[in-house]
Amino acid sequence: MEDLKLIARIAGQEIALAADAVESVVEIEAITPVPLAGVHIAGLAALRSRVLTIIDTYAALEIGVSPRDGIVQAVVVTIDHHLYGLLVDEVVDVAAITGDPLPLHAGLSRGWANAGLGIVEHQERALLLLDPARIVAGPPVAAAA
Predict the structure, then answer these.
(1) Rounded distance, CA 85 to CA 111, Å?
(2) Are the C-beta atoms of 96 and 3 separated by less than 8 Å?
(3) How far apart are CA 111 and CA 11, in angstroms?
(4) Which domains does the chain show, CATH number per domain?
(5) Dihedrals φ, ψ of 111, to 5°?
(6) E strands along 99-137, which residues?
(7) DSSP state string for 34-56
């Protein structure tokens, strides 16, 4: 099977997203914080007269906070009829990738494992295929003790 994937970089890791899940890639100049929002919700931004919820992918993946000095890039996805911007460090490419994803192996941190769908290979590099809906949902909630 051959599918288009958007390749981006988050915290130095090249990742892939199914291109059919991606509406666009945009640059965000201003993010307005939302009081009492989840830690992975960076805030709101305007996109062509529409409100875009900005997701801090670092926080969603439990690896810190996305660097936000000046203009940032976001991959726009639609989940349940709502627009979300997933903050990325950089968009690298869009590529046709052949084959089904390989299963995830042990050793991934909880956040990456939660958002991961599998591993895809592109130009002899392994890329973690992420599920945008799982990123939007945020970090997994720790089980009550």
Answers:
(1) 18
(2) yes
(3) 13
(4) 2-137 (2.40.50.180)
(5) -65, -45
(6) 116-122, 125-130
(7) -TT--TTEEEEEEETTEEEEEE-
User: Which pLDDT tens digit goes with each residue over 70-114?
Assistant: 889 999 999 999 999 999 999 999 999 988 899 987 788 999 999
Cα 130 from Cα 37, distance rounded (Å) = 23
How many Cβ atoms sit within 10 Å of the Cβ of residue 61?
29
- Tokens describing residue 61: 């993946």
Distance CA 91, CA 8 (A): 4
pTM value is 0.92
User: Is residue 4 a contact partner of residue 94, using CB atoms and an 8 Å limit?
Assistant: yes
